[in-house]
Specification:
There is one protein chain. The strands form two sheets. Strands 1-6-7-2-5 form a five-stranded mixed β-sheet, with helices on both faces. It has a three-stranded antiparallel β-sheet with strand order 4-3-8. The protein has one domain: Alpha-Beta Complex (Nucleoside Triphosphate Pyrophosphohydrolase). Helices cover 37% and strands 35% of the residues. Strand 3 and strand 4 form a beta hairpin. It is an alpha/beta fold and 178 residues long. The longest helix has 29 residues.
Length: 178
């Protein structure tokens, strides 16, 4: 997989762009699309922010399996990965924490039950389906209202994933028409 972006304190708070050399956590996340090319966004009512489905990769778990598990837990949908986007590094110098997230696009399948964690329930997490353009718009809005250091990394990461997805899906549509 190729690097999509390295996010550092420079991108978030304007500090010097320091890169950490130890990975603190592996993540798997990305875009879940339905038949109408709508995107599943996770809305957290407690913070009034949006994020993409995804989370941590468990020990001895493949990142693709982790992404599909996270989709099922957070959205209730079974899914199939249709494209590997690459990976994003988040270098949170103030927290001495580096997260490497493997990023994918998946197609929603059969709907089942959501299995939110306690912390996700406390955040008031729900799925909201919207167009890709609307998803980028709500991420832009979130970046304006959010002043939390770690959440700002999440917002920039997920906005970057959505923008990369627009480019990929546009190319896939063009290929399918020819």
């Amino acid at each position: 997989m190729q690097l999509i972006k390295k996010i550092t304190d420079y991108d978030i708070v304007g500090d010097a762009p320091e890169v950490l050399d130890t990975i603190s956590r592996y993540g798997a996340r990305g875009v879940l699309v339905d038949d109408g090319c709508n995107v599943a966004m996770m809305y957290m009512s407690k913070t009034n922010l949006y994020k993409l489905p995804g989370g941590g990769v468990d020990e001895n778990e493949d990142s693709e399996d982790a992404f599909l598990r996270e989709i099922q837990e957070e959205t209730g949908y079974e899914a199939d990965i249709i494209h590997k986007l690459g990976y994003i590094e988040e270098h949170k110098k103030r927290n001495d924490f580096m997260q490497l997230s493997y990023c994918y696009i998946a197609k929603a399948g059969k709907r089942q039950n959501m299995m939110l964690s306690e912390s996700e329930k406390q955040l008031g997490m729900v799925v909201k389906w919207m167009t890709l353009n609307k998803a980028i718009e709500v991420m832009n809005d979130s970046s304006i209202i959010c002043d939390d250091y770690s959440d700002r990394f999440m917002i920039l990461r997920d906005k970057t994933i959505l923008e990369k997805t627009v480019n990929i899906l546009t190319r896939l549509e063009v290929k399918q028409k020819h």
